[in-house]
Amino acid sequence: MSKTITIEPVTRIEGHAKISIMLDDSGRVVDSRFHVTEFRGFEKFCVGRSFWEMPGITARICGICPVSHLMASSKAGDMILGVRTPAPAVALRRLMNYAQLVQSHALSFFLLSGPDLILGMDADPLQRNMAGLIAANPDLARAGIRMRAFGQQLIRMLGDRSVHPSWAVPGGVRKSLGSDQRDQVLKQLPEMHATINIALDLMKDIHDSFSTEIDAYGEFPSLFMGLVGEDGGLEHYDGKLRVIDAEGKILEDGAAPEDYQRLIAEGEQKWSYLKFPYYRPLGPEQGMYRVGPLARLNVCDFAGTPKADRELRQFRHYGGQGKPVSGSFYYHHARLIEILHALERIEEILGDDILIDHHIRSQAGVNQNIGIGISEAPRGTLFHHYRVDDNGILEDVNLIIATGQNNLAMNRTVRQLAERFIRGDKLDQGLLNRVEHGIRVYDPCLSCSTHEAGRMPLQVQLFSARGELLDEVKRC
Amino acid sequence: MWLVIGYGNPLRGDDGAGPRLAEQLATHVCAEQAKIIVAHQLTPELALELAAPGVRQVLFVDAQRQQESATLLSPIYPDATGSCGHQLSPQLLLQLSKQLYARPVPGWLLTIAGEQFSLSEQLSELSRVAVSRAFEQAIGLMSGPVADC
Question: Within this chain, do residues A168 and A225 fall inside the same structural domain, yes or no?
């Protein structure tokens, strides 16, 4: 009798989702699906509003990475204005984007994936959580919280608040950074460097302890996409799109934001609200690509900061023979290298006299009817595409979110884990933990918006082909 | 000093009740009496706010679906098993403050009834009335003696 195992919802990710795994009569995995069961509708909701409002509105897509939407939306607005954004404003936007990277990656590594990585996949689910992590390694938990607070504080300094700052606007930013604030941030950098060094050492130990199963977490050939700078360096705010294949061969380079629709097509499935983007020239089967920290480290030629470059050179050994690193478990490690890089960049920007310049915003009206803004969010490349009328009223909005672009890879990862660890119809917690972690390595952000108290239980249901409930497990 | 954290998404209708109440409180209480924080959701670094010197009690304000009474005010206690992810439970935040920073802060949860959580910047009539009532309750609570932990 064929059966379906459902994991609902997946915990310690942003938003609501469930996983279904279909087994055939012999208990063999025949299919798996990562469903996103939450519908948001922002693209329709925004039509009819002014593009000037978009940074503030779209930042509310998410409470975890609002800055990313602020960046992409402001850049789309820059294009509509047709102005050159002042260099100090660009430096300040970069600063906030790096702060965002630090806080988001710190949350992912130290506090969301930390329990799995430190306590192990076979730990009791009642212990394999933040409280368990605190009990096992309180110093690490404290350091993670401090690092997250550091990033949030810098965002708050710039944008007056850390969640949904309406600070970046079409043409620039609203305010600069005071010298006392700059000193306050600089003073904390040594502590943040010490923390990331500890985490990088820890990550190498984690690789050893997970050595027998790392290859089950999304180890497969795929394309990778991300922004790179004009010189091919690691880039998070601007630059051009690059796509490489599983062998490391560059398929696209120097693609401008306006070219994105030539590169990306958006597939759909009836069973999920999340889109299924793929690399258009290769089609949905061959065009699966990954974005985010792992992809960015794979597509860039170098990091461009000394400490991150040293780590990147070591990291590339995991790929071997000039190939990209292809296992999604290495997203964790890539996040840490990106935090290190962001800390170095934050120090550079804070030491740059350009921040003293008070010309931080260019003024203009609607000069173009199309605006496309691309930036690298913590989870990957983010696209905002607007069409406006001559008064700046939005007629069409298209948003391609990083998590959506990893959708095909997440589904493939669930399948891979299920094939490796599920035998028969027995629901084993360690096995389910691994499947959940296979999603969590991507740190997906499904954007919860409504969050009344107590709505995140884990429910696992086992169904027969006829829809009979055979087994059920619940946990908080 | 009280710490008040009103949380929710103001673009999701009644989910914005917590932030709405926190904003109203911010205009009525002095800085020495309470620190007011408006948040989208409860995140781990808020534990540092709970553990900050001077914080004697904390009041969490959230929206609640399917709540019979307009408002519900309850003492809450540190609990390690609560929601744990991008958004934490208030009980887990109390636990973080206690366990990581040795600051066991007495906590209260004030929930405001809501019925409409789809895309909207407006509160429903039910929630709007409940926010007014919650405001009086919060002011009354903060005027009382400081509880022992």
Answer: no
* Tokens 């670094």, residue located: B45
Amino acid found at B123 = L
Contact A111 B119 (CB under 8 A): no
Interface of A with B in 190-229 (CB under 8 A): none
3-state secondary structure at position B27: coil
**Nearest CA among A444, A467, A471 for reference residue A9:** A444
The residue ranking higher by pLDDT, A127 or B98, is B98
Q: Which of A338, A363, A388 is the last residue of a domain?
A: A363
Whether complex ipTM tops 0.90: no
DSSP state of A108: I
Q: What integer is the mean pLDDT of B120-125?
A: 91
Residue B141 is inside which H or E element, if any? Answer: helix B125-143
A212 and A128: one domain?
yes
Residue A259 has pLDDT above 90, yes or no: yes
Of A126, A148, A456, the CB nearest to B44: A148
Return the closest-CA partner of residue A147 out of A197, A203, A106, A98: A106
Domain range enclosing A121: 84-219+327-363
Residue A164 to residue B80, Cβ atoms within 8 A: no
A401: helix, coil or strand? coil
When pLDDT is averaged across residues A362-381 and rounded to a whole number, the result is 96
CA distance B93 to B48: 9
d(CA B26, CA A155) in angstroms, rounded, equals 22
Q: Is the pLDDT of residue A13 over 70?
A: no
CATH class of the domain comprising B2-17+27-143: alpha beta
pTM comes to 0.88
Domain termination site, one of A299, A326, A353: A326
